[in-house]
Design goal:
0% strand; mainly alpha
Length: 262
């Protein structure tokens, strides 16, 4: 009986990686792994995932007689399933709040880049950003918003605009004003082509804010952008993407990079 069940799981995985598994079948497969995580160990050993991933770096993968499986696809599928089930091994489904940023630290506020070599003095816009930061750490959110708005309204150039909008979004997010923070984070992301770091922050916090207002589909796109930028939020973005995919019923990873979690 046990062998029959394992064979059924393997057939479902085979159909999944070949894109031939129905939506109902996909849901059944994920439910099976969520309820029986011990099957992952067996599957990982039989698929030779670890050996395949390590050997592929130094030599061409050999052919294994496993009923028509495409090995690199199978390995990728197993890695993603292992990562996914590890998230939900204790409580299924896991609460989304466990993956979200509850309060953005003041250290994420963007300040002046420093003294400019050409004129040896800090600009007024830089000073306003620094004063806004001081207001944030002093707990004066209202004053911080006023200062960031001055930058936005009077210094419509980069990097001041993207920094001010990002900072404004952070203050609004921490005040629970998610719709307003979404507008600010979007504006920052649109302007931040000059700075990968600011762009990553903007997309990451935008995704979190969108989830807080229930816009999961759009949030998924923003979180993916943060993940794609491959910065400090990459691992957190990967985990949140896994949760969003799970909740939205999206299990097609054909266009999704594999992030191996250490």
């Amino acid at each position: 009986m046990e062998n029959t069940r394992e064979q059924k799981i393997r057939k479902q995985i085979d159909a999944y990686v070949k894109g031939k598994l129905s939506e109902e079948g996909i849901q059944s497969l994920w439910n099976e792994f969520a309820k029986n995580p011990e099957l992952l160990d067996l599957l990982e050993v039989e698929a030779g995932t670890k050996a395949l991933l390590s050997e592929s770096k130094v030599k061409k993968a050999t052919v294994h007689p496993l009923s028509g499986w495409t090995w690199h696809i199978a390995a990728a599928a197993v890695v993603l399933i292992v990562a996914m089930v590890q998230l939900f091994r204790v409580n299924t489904p896991t609460d989304m709040d466990e993956f979200l940023v509850t309060n953005i630290e003041p250290g994420q506020i963007e300040t002046a880049d420093g003294i400019r070599a050409d004129d040896l003095k800090i600009s007024e816009a830089d000073s306003l950003l620094n004063l806004g930061f001081k207001a944030v750490i002093s707990g004066n959110g209202e004053r911080a918003l006023e200062l960031f708005d001055i930058v936005i309204n009077n210094y419509d150039e980069e990097p001041y605009g993207s920094k001010a909008f990002l900072n404004k979004g952070i203050v609004l997010y921490n005040e629970g004003k998610y719709p307003d923070s979404i507008n600010s984070f979007r504006e920052s992301a649109n302007r931040a082509e000059h700075s990968r770091m600011i762009s990553e922050k903007a997309y990451w916090y935008l995704g979190n804010a969108l989830i807080n207002v229930g816009e999961l589909e759009v949030a998924r796109e923003a979180v993916y952008e943060a993940y794609r930028l491959d910065g400090v939020f990459r691992t957190a973005a990967f985990r949140l993407l896994q949760k969003l995919n799970y909740d939205l019923g999206k299990y097609d990873y054909d266009n999704f990079d594999i992030q191996q979690l250490n």
